[in-house]
Amino acid sequence: MSETVVTRFAPSPTGFLHIGGARTALFNWLFAKSLGGTMLLRIEDTDRARSTEAAIAAILDGLTWLGLDWDGEPVFQFARAARHREAVEQMLADGRAYRCYATAQELEEMRSTAQAEGRPPRYDGRWRDRPASEAPADRQPAIRLKAPTEGETVVDDLVQGRVVIPNKDLDDLVLLRSDGTPTYMLAVVVDDHDMGVTHVIRGVDHLTNAARQTQIYAALGWPVPKMAHIPLIHGPDGAKLSKRHGALGAEAYREMGFLPEALRNYLARLGWSHGDDEIFSTAQAIEWFDIGDVGRSAARFDMAKLSNLNGHYMRATPDNELMAAFKASLPYLPGGPEAAARLDATGRWSAFEGALPGLKERAKTLVELLDGARFLTDARPLAVEPAAEALLTPDARALLASLHGRLTALEPWSAAGAEEIVRTLAEEVGVKLGALAQPLRAALTGRKTSPGIFDVLVALGKEESLARIADQASGA
């Protein structure tokens, strides 16, 4: 491809960066990266009533967390209103647009009549060819595109294929409202042209907009960018994606403890594929990405699959890198700041690092990792879960009392030394290892599951381990 590829991600700042928007940003980013191009960011903030600074910040933060960088400074659409009006003046001068003085009441009557007759509601073109001398002096006009009424408008879509819309099905859309503000349809075309966008990659719900925007390009005498309308995302049940499926903001996935690289991998597979590859690095995704490999049918979002994939990434991530990601995520995880404070206060960060290999084997998210490490952050006396409490029978507590005495003499404190003591005591009293190890786990962690129990003893240290065993040996 000889041209320099320029894509853009253009969210409206009326809420968070939802998962569909994140996937659109990713596809634009991958396409640009795969061809040595650039991805620009445009904030479409023309809806002044709904656009907020908080939403803008959330979108920028979500993209940054996902690792989807953009080139240059973000472009804010509202700030370009004068340029949008300038383009309309050009169309008026060229006879490709006209002033429309239809009132709100007249427009409503058109809609009502169309509905009554079973027709789609469309503007009837009543001001399309009327002379300026008939213009009423008591109101400001809207400016409408003088769209072709015959023939057809064709969109050669890179994903959806050739899409043909009869021009009779498209009316003269408004370019400038009567108060002089540009419409979304106009602003998108002018901005994409001025920003040098070569490829517009967006959701298939914009496909009907593509025909209208193609007509605006023609009226301005500008080349039309190549377009690719990607499938929507549905829930696992095939219904439109909603919050119950996972239609949340990027920040919610950070709070749920997902790694950005795992989420990138998962989102890339929602609608795009490279053979049967399910797990791949970002570098591989860039190398392999081809917009022609994006399917037309809706993709299905499955939280369980995302969680399993995230678990794979956590196990595959080197411990030092996972530790860094965990620490960076703590401010966002439920209970994370409090856990960090307790780890700081107790000086158990090194213990956490030591337990990490065992902890990450049992966790699918950073939230589960934090939960698994709760034994390191919980204060005595430990809250014991009911299932673990059931292991602490009178006989088990007596065994823990005997074990406490023997472990007190252990020097140096080590996993191997502790294991030898536990095994020896179990043999002496004639019980299986589990009959002692399971109550010991309950005493040390308050749970039935944990990393290896001898690793837990080392992670907690001698003083804390003996104190916790003593608590349960005495029935505290």
TrEMBL record:
Q: Which UniProt keywords apply?
A: Aminoacyl-tRNA synthetase, ATP-binding, Cytoplasm, Ligase, Nucleotide-binding, Protein biosynthesis
Q: List the residue ranges forming a coiled coil, or say none.
A: none
Q: Mind listing the GO molecular function terms for this protein?
A: ATP binding; glutamate-tRNA ligase activity; tRNA binding; zinc ion binding
**Pfam families associated with the record:** Anticodon_2, tRNA-synt_1c
Q: Where in the cell is it found?
A: Cytoplasm
Enzyme Commission number(s): 6.1.1.17
Residues the record lists as binding ATP: K243
Q: Region Disordered: what ranges?
A: 111-139
Instruction: Specify the Aminoacyl-tRNA synthetase class I anticodon-binding domain's residue ranges.
Output: 351-471
Q: Per its UniProt record, what Gene3D superfamilies does this chain match?
A: 1.10.10.350, HUPs
Q: What residue spans carry the Basic and acidic residues bias annotation?
A: 119-132
UniProt key word Ligase: yes
One biological process GO term for this chain? glutamyl-tRNA aminoacylation
Positions of short motif 'KMSKS' region: 240-244
Q: Does the keyword ATP-binding apply?
A: yes
Q: Motif span ('HIGH' region)? A: 11-21
InterPro entries from the UniProt entry: aa-tRNA-synth_I_cd-bd, aa-tRNA-synth_I_codon-bd_sub2, aa-tRNA-synth_I_CS, aa_tRNA-synth_I_cd-bd_sf, Glu-tRNA-ligase_bac/mito, Glu/Gln-tRNA-synth, Glu/Gln-tRNA-synth_Ib_cat-dom, GluQ/Sye
Main localization is cytoplasm
The record's subunit annotation is: Monomer.
HAMAP family recorded: Glu_tRNA_synth_type1 (MF_00022)
What role does it play?
A: Catalyzes the attachment of glutamate to tRNA(Glu) in a two-step reaction: glutamate is first activated by ATP to form Glu-AMP and then transferred to the acceptor end of tRNA(Glu).
Which named protein is this?
A: Glutamate--tRNA ligase
- Write down the species: Methylopila capsulata
